[in-house]
Amino acid sequence: MRRLKFEELQATPWKNGGGLTRELHGYPAGASFDAFLWRVSIADVSQSGAFSSFPGVDRVITLLEGEGMQLFSAGGEPVLLLPLQPHRFRGEEQVSAQLEGGACQDFNLMLRRGAATGEVKVWHADQDLPQGCSLLFCAQGRWDVLTENGEQTTLEPRQTLVCDEQPGGLALRSQGGGIIISVSINLL
After folding, report:
1. Could you say which of 20, 32, 56, 173 would form a disulfide bridge with 11 (CB–CB 3.0 to 4.6 Å)?
2. Partners of 2 in the beta sheet?
3. Cα 181 → chain centroid
4. Among the listed residues 165, 69, 27, the one whose alpha carbon sits nearest the alpha carbon of residue 41
């Protein structure tokens, strides 16, 4: 398992150039926007506008910071994205965002359809996770992460724990008032 600090991640332009993103982890490592099988990132959204198009990619977006973001897609009902509520959509959808009160930051999982599946869960309390967790992101507070073989690490706010090999189950223990995001990914 590897721990990453947010401030050490390199910011790169979005695929459409409309903002910045920081990749937490992806597969294969170093793959371009058009070649990844899965990718987890955090995006800075400083203004309203269109999302990048990712045909053949399923996306899960979770607002981390900001007052909210209204998502509009062709032919669909608008969706108000509120903090820490994952929302799934297809990457080929023409989606635009209207910021509700200024800049936002969001957590993104992207999965190449037919190559990978996955899910994002937000935890507010101690939790035992089954085998298969690929990544943990500490959104608030401090969390102790314990493995079945006795390893322990502590995550501070905005730190990520990447599980390069699928560990057994993990135990998450909050040090009070924390929020942690788990990502589970399965290659097909």
Report:
1. 20
2. 162
3. 8
4. 27
The Cα–Cα gap between 154 and 50 comes to: 37
Q: Nearest CA to 87 among 98, 78, 74, 99?
A: 78
SS3 169: coil
**pTM over 0.90, yes/no:** yes
Q: For residue 1, what are its two tokens?
A: 């398992």
Tokens of 19: 């903002």
pLDDT in tens, 43-101: 999 899 989 899 999 999 999 999 899 999 987 889 999 899 999 999 999 999 999 88
Residue whose C-alpha is closest to residue 116's, from 56, 69, 179, 156:
56
Which amino acid is present at 174? S
Structure tokens at 61: 């977006």
DSSP 62-80: EEEESS-EEEEETTS--EE
Residue reference for tokens 């998502």: 71
